[in-house]
Fold:
Amino acid sequence: MNPPQATSSRVTETAPDTPSPSDQAALWRQRFESELEQRLRETGDTPGDLLESMRYSALAGGKRMRPLLVYGAGQALGIDVDELHGIAAAIELIHAYSLIHDDLPAMDDDDIRRGRPTNHRVYGQSTAILAGDALQALAFEVLANDANLSQNPAAQVRVIGAVAHACGAAGMAGGQVLDLAAIDKTIDATALETMHRLKTGALIRVSATAPALYALAPADQASALSDYGACVGLAFQIHDDVLDVTASSQQTGKPSQGDAARNKPAFPSVLGLERSRERASELVEKATRSLSELPGDTRALAWLAGYAIRREG
Structure:
């Protein structure tokens, strides 16, 4: 049995009992938490504090932006979002692993994440590194064993390949290399955007495109979601940089002014605060325009694009 093909006619009317985009996101987030918990429970017994360390970071809450984008893209393609829990969980597991490693002394050396001590401050660096490794491995195990993906091996291989590409040397890991290399240096806006399209943007982009790969969507729809994800990913990072300057540590769950303290280039220091906000808004507008190519209900994706630069933490 093949995965559903993306539908061909755009949804233009909303049923009276359809939740608002913000309510829909809350419902998806609630369902996702139980799905993620189940994936971690299925790992079974692990040595020492490894599973506890994995759970500490993966189940720490957060915005769950990436799973919400998976569900929103599925809805925009006319896919039953219940078929996408495996993809959503895998991408969030990779995000969780990346945060553990990002906080390590050899990287950003952060002590606080989401309002509590970072993983290595609780479990030690060795366990934290291994927990990150295990979360990444679990992500691909989830994709390999997902019942919906397994119905079409070709689609499954494409999704796995896209996720691997997004978190590897040509994506998130490569972006982190650029980020570390930029410390104590002056770079221009183009170089900064290139860095963050990889470090942050690649995983957000694949969150939007993976449902199209799963559904074997037409090229124009896949391209629209790719454009959308690229714009939202960069806007999300720009807003993160703005919050680092303007928000309190209570709002963000981590120390404020962190980029300046580490002498890392950030959008407010490169573009200025107001131009950074303008650039983020331009990207959201571009992302929203790309949704016209999609056949299903795009209200959630439009809301998520705006949320990327409205959030306070």
Q: What stands out?
A: The chain is about 65% helix and 0% strand.
